[in-house]
Design brief:
The chain has 383 residues and is mainly alpha-helical. It contains 16 helices and five strands.
């Protein structure tokens, strides 16, 4: 569809062709190699799901994977952070919120949106209203916050080099208005339609849904992050994963150019098979890595807890903190006090004892508002 307007950045009029994708198919023919990639990936995901439920509290592992996903998916959009500083900012949130850097606040927004989505998907299907709600959280307090937050965009968008004019855009999504809303509504309907679910394997539907969402580009900001979140929601909704212990954004981040090239080639060729294989490989390799990480964390957790029980046999709170380090490897006394509902003196004593025996170490130079962490746990999580 041809669209025209004025590019206010350069004071130039433009006339370009916007891409209106066909609706997603109800069935699809795939080569044997694609079926094989899907089967291999789903086996890896199933193994991950089984092992994750050997963890005393699977949501502890899910909490860290959500933060890993927050970092990876934000990095794909140009917002970078490191896990220790993100966890530190989260522990201090609400106490020293004004000191949290905007880039970290943006990543924390994603983590908040993801956790809301994971809780909601158990009782509420993926819908435009849910995505609107998530998008508003993701952009909250940032440059894209405003009247359009939580709503379908009302202006055109262009994908390409921000230093070049619109006529040189790499990709132009559908313009706002009836076409955009119609595409979004049909996309949501397709997610739960009976025939695609019967005819297309789940990973194929995840890949197709992600392609379509990115092509439609329904929001002014946050499309990539929401689209990648939807992939995990589809797995949770269909029961393939019981907890959100998997993320693929870090894998995609290291293959950013291939990721974006695959999306563009689908629009150019209409051939979904290479794209589906690419996404299947992402799930396969990340599920395998997540499985290894969980096994290593469980082994380390056992060693740490045994050590604390031996060296601090009467310190029950210290043992509890040690048991939960795989979910909360960075902490402050105030955060621990809130988490377990213990008194400040008891909490200070427990954290101090863990620091004395080397399970925790101070990670900042502060005399007050000290931040402690387990570098052993962080090292495993970041691998």
């Amino acid at each position: 569809m041809e669209i025209a307007g004025l590019d206010g950045r350069f004071g130039e009029e433009y006339r370009v062709a916007a891409f209106i994708p066909d609706d997603l198919p109800e069935s699809i023919d795939l080569p044997a190699s694609t079926w094989q990639a899907i089967a291999h990936a789903m086996a890896a995901v199933s193994r991950l799901d089984a092992v994750s439920h050997l963890v005393p509290n699977p949501m502890f592992v899910a909490r860290i994977d959500t933060r890993r996903e927050a970092l990876g998916t934000s990095a794909l959009e140009g917002t970078f952070g490191e896990l220790p500083e993100l966890l530190t900012a989260e522990e201090q949130r609400g106490v020293a919120a004004a000191r949290i850097e905007p880039r970290l606040r943006e990543i924390l927004n994603y983590a908040e949106a993801a956790e809301l989505a994971y809780q909601t998907i158990r009782s509420r299907p993926i819908s435009l209203s849910l995505l609107d709600e998530l998008q508003a959280i993701i952009v909250r307090g940032g440059a894209s916050d405003g009247a359009d937050a939580g709503t379908l965009r009302r202006t055109p968008v262009f994908i390409g080099d921000p230093g070049r004019g619109i006529s040189e855009a790499r990709f132009v999504p559908p313009p706002p208005g009836p076409h955009l809303r119609g595409l979004c509504l049909r996309w949501v309907q397709w997610l739960s339609a009976e025939e695609p679910r019967r005819s297309i394997p789940l990973l194929g539907r995840i890949a197709l849904a992600h392609y379509q969402f990115e092509s439609i580009h329904p929001y002014l900001d946050g499309n990539g992050r929401i689209g990648r979140l939807v992939a995990i929601l589809q797995m949770l909704e269909e029961g393939v994963l019981r907890s959100p212990v998997l993320s693929i954004s870090s894998w995609l981040r290291h293959r950013d150019r291939d990721y974006r090239d695959h999306l563009l080639r689908v629009s150019e060729s209409g051939d979904f098979a290479p794209w589906i294989e690419f996404i299947a490989t992402a799930f396969d390799e990340e599920a395998t890595m997540s499985l290894r990480r969980i096994e290593s964390l469980l082994e380390l957790r056992g060693h740490i807890v045994d050590r604390v029980k031996t060296e601090l046999p009467r310190a029950r709170l210290a043992v509890t903190i040690a048991e939960d380090l795989i979910a909360f490897p960075v902490l402050t006394v105030a955060a621990v006090e809130r988490r377990y509902g213990k008194s400040n003196p008891a909490t200070r004593a427990a954290v101090g004892s863990l620091a004395e025996i080397g399970v925790l170490e101070q990670m900042n130079d502060a005399t007050y508002a000290r931040v402690y962490g387990s570098r052993e746990v962080l090292r495993l999580i970041e691998e």
